[in-house]
């Protein structure tokens, strides 16, 4: 007990040192001079919390944990119930937007974009075990492909969509080719470098990409060639005229939502199938042991490259859709933080687990929207959650269930 | 033509002072990587916090209170080093130590989380906007060569001098002290060192503390030289310092110093002779190229993967 108290005292003093210069002494600027405004109660409170935690809570926690089984895990769903749950969720997702407000559907669309991105990155990080910190670069490539094709050539969304995916995939292939022989954390840093290079190029190629302002006025997708706008451009009928409806902005939002849902479902379906194919098995094998794979005659570079390219392609689709929904793209949307957010979705969901990724995408997108008043603490908590998750459940909320056959007794 | 040489000297000086900062940060990366083989992603944030602590100290003392400037700077450096030492220690104990021995990706992700946390920790505490740092060291050394004047601000000369002194001290400490010898043993073989009775946990903490202290010095000095700071300066500086560490050969302390200086020079020359907008791209491209063609860096030893 004495040693606990002593340790806790040391920890409390350290907490004081950590909190004091950031929260305890606020720098206030008055004219040319800066002076400090002390807020000692905050420091003392922090110290007290740390002391109590270290002295009483943690030893008690360890005692409790030590007595029972330390590991407890959430129920792992079996195949049937998982499938039933997915169908139920799809049905709800299809019907739901018609009964709620505009803001909710808008957020749901955003969630679906992140689901798509999360599932794409899940292929790279979760299945193939390649830590990609520059995923947002491919997202940017997709978004700018559509934006630029519209801006310079007047292409519509549906013509540009396949090309956006292909372009991002091509970038993934070209960038992946040289770097994929690097080991884990080197790969992470190089991909981070690539992501930043893409963003910096978008900023600096001013004539081509519009620089920091980006490109605006990107049209929304059409419905079978009919634009969803109030007034049709010359010689075209709008969707609501064709259907004989009044124009309603809500229709556009629901349409975008349904499209995002379709894209997300396609991503889910493809990644779900591909992991059962030989190439998917090879990804997982490579993730577990590269040397063993090589000695079994698998070509690590090709296998990694296929994962990288496929993940990038989905990011490209997501990007094109993002550009269409937003109506404008600029490099601000493609910072490292975005990569970190997508990575957090994958990690929080449980690397390799698709249901987990979807769940995490919902949590990480909806929570900040709900907790608007905590906006400034949002990113702080976000970082902390990443750390705590790695300690508490490195396998994620819903860890992946490996497909396997059990012998009947 | 007559301007070419003096201009080159000017850029060389600029590059050297920038490179000195990178070298100071890079040592933290390289020492940690050398011992536990992980990238301490939050290291750039420690540098930023060091700069903030320096500013807080300066504001506490007050500018123009009659204290001699070198003494003020010394106090700033010492306070910043002490506080960031605690930060470095705590970050390691909280975010990395519990994860040791797990899969490689786990501590890296935890480190990214820590980095985001620390950035916003300061952004919430001290505000996210740019903050001006009072100019403590003013004036510049001016040398005329022909009709061209080379300007060397004292604040930047100070960066180079302080860095050289600290590098020398670190070198002597690692070479000759007990703790330094133990940390060298750990970087050769952590398990073996442990078996021979070295408290490896202590050495790992020591590594984080030393790295954090040096980064803090870099932060304080650059804040004084540039005159402003915000909570997000750590990210870019951290990535670049990591590039420097990789360039010199990660795990090698002289390599980090060399890599820092080379990166600083490359960036400055790119800004001067290509375009200042492309200097970050040059740094990142350099990182990619080195990792592709010489992943072990200039002074690093090749790593053999064993089954």
Automatic annotation (TrEMBL), chain A:
UniProt entry tagged with the keyword Transmembrane helix: yes
High-affinity branched-chain amino acid transport system permease LivHM N-terminal domain boundaries: 4-96
InterPro entries referenced in this protein's UniProt entry, alphabetically: ABC_transp_permease, LivHM_N, LivM-like
Subcellular location: Cell membrane
Domain of life: Bacteria
Keywords: Cell membrane, Membrane, Transmembrane, Transmembrane helix
TM region(s), chain numbering: 40-61, 82-99, 111-131, 136-154, 160-180, 187-206, 252-271, 305-328, 340-367, 374-392
KW Transmembrane (keyword) present: yes
Protein topology in the membrane: Multi-pass membrane protein
Protein name: High-affinity branched-chain amino acid ABC transporter permease LivM
Protein source organism: Yanghanlia caeni
Automatic annotation (TrEMBL), chain B:
Location within or outside the cell: Cell membrane
InterPro entries: ABC_transp_permease (IPR001851), BCAA_transport_permease (IPR052157)
Topology class, membrane: Multi-pass membrane protein
Ranges annotated as spanning the membrane: 20-39, 46-65, 71-90, 102-122, 154-174, 203-226, 281-300
Keywords of the record: Amino-acid transport, Cell inner membrane, Cell membrane, Membrane, Transmembrane, Transmembrane helix, Transport
Family recorded in the similarity comment: Belongs to the binding-protein-dependent transport system permease family. LivHM subfamily.
Protein name as catalogued: Branched-chain amino acid ABC transporter permease LivH
């Amino acid at each position: 007990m004495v040693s606990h108290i002593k340790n806790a005292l040391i920890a409390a003093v350290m907490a004081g040192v950590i909190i004091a210069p950031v929260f305890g002494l606020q720098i206030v600027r008055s004219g040319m001079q800066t002076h400090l405004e002390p807020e000692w109660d905050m420091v003392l409170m922090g110290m007290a919390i740390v002391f109590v935690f270290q002295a009483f809570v943690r030893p008690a926690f360890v005692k409790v944990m030590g007595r029972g089984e330390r590991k407890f895990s959430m129920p792992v769903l079996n195949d049937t119930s998982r499938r039933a749950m997915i169908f139920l969720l799809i049905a709800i997702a299809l019907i739901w937007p018609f009964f709620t407000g505009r803001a909710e559907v808008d957020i749901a669309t955003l969630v679906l974009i992140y689901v798509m991105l999360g599932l794409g990155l899940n292929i790279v990080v979760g299945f193939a075990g390649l830590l990609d910190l520059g995923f947002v670069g491919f997202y940017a490539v997709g978004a700018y492909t559509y934006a630029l094709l519209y801006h310079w050539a007047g292409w519509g969304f549906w013509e540009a969509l396949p090309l956006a995916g292909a372009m991002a995939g091509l970038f993934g292939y070209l960038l992946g080719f040289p770097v994929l022989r690097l080991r884990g954390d080197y790969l992470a840093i190089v991909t981070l470098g690539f992501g930043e290079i893409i963003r910096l190029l978008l900023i600096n190629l001013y004539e081509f990409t519009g620089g920091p302002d980006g490109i605006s006025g990107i049209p929304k997708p059409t419905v079978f060639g009919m634009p969803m706008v109030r007034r049709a451009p010359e010689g075209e009928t709008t969707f609501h005229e064709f259907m004989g409806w009044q124009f309603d902005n809500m229709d556009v939002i629901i349409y975008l939502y349904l499209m995002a849902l379709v894209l997300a479902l396609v991503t889910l379906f493809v990644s779900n199938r591909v992991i059962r194919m030989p190439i998917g098995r090879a990804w997982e094998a490579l993730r577990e042991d590269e040397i063993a794979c090589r000695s079994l005659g698998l070509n690590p570079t090709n296998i990694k490259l296929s994962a990288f390219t496929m993940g990038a392609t989905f990011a490209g689709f997501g990007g094109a859709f993002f550009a269409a929904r937003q109506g404008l793209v600029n490099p601000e949307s493609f910072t490292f933080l975005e990569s970190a957010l997508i990575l957090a979705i994958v990690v929080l969901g449980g690397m390799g687990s698709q249901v987990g990724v979807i769940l995490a995408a919902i949590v990480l997108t909806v929570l900040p929207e709900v907790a608007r008043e905590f906006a400034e603490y949002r990113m702080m908590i976000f970082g902390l959650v990443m750390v705590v998750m790695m300690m508490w459940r490195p396998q994620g909320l819903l860890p992946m269930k490996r497909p396997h056959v059990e012998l009947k007794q | 033509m007559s301007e070419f040489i003096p201009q080159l000297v000017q850029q060389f000086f600029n590059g050297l002072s920038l490179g000195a900062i990178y070298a100071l940060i890079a040592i933290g990366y390289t020492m940690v990587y050398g011992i536990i083989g992980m990238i301490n992603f939050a290291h750039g944030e420690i540098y930023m916090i060091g700069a903030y602590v320096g500013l807080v100290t300066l504001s506490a003392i007050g500018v123009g209170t009659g204290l001699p400037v070198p003494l003020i700077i010394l106090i700033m450096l010492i306070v910043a080093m002490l506080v960031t030492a605690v930060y470095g220690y705590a970050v390691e104990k909280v975010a990395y130590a519990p994860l040791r021995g797990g899969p490689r990706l786990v501590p890296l992700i935890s480190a990214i989380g820590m980095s985001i946390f620390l950035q916003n920790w300061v952004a919430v505490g001290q505000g996210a906007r740019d903050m001006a740092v009072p100019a403590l060291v003013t004036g510049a050394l001016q040398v005329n060569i022909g009709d061209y004047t080379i300007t060397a601000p004292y604040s930047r000369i100070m960066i180079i001098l302080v860095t050289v002194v600290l590098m020398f001290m670190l070198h002597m400490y690692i070479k000759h002290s007990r703790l330094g010898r133990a940390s060298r043993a750990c970087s050769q073989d952590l398990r073996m060192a442990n078996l021979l009775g070295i408290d490896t946990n202590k050495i790992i903490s020591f590594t984080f503390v030393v790295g954090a202290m040096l980064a803090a010095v870099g932060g304080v000095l650059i804040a004084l030289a540039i005159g402003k700071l915000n909570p997000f300066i750590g990210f870019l500086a951290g990535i670049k310092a990591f590039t420097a560490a990789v360039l010199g050969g990660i795990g090698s302390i002289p390599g980090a110093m060399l890599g820092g200086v080379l990166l600083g020079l490359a960036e400055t020359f790119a800004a001067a002779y290509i375009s200042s907008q492309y200097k970050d791209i040059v740094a990142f491209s350099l990182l990619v190229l080195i990792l592709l063609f010489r992943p072990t860096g200039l002074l690093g030893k090749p790593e053999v993967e064993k089954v």
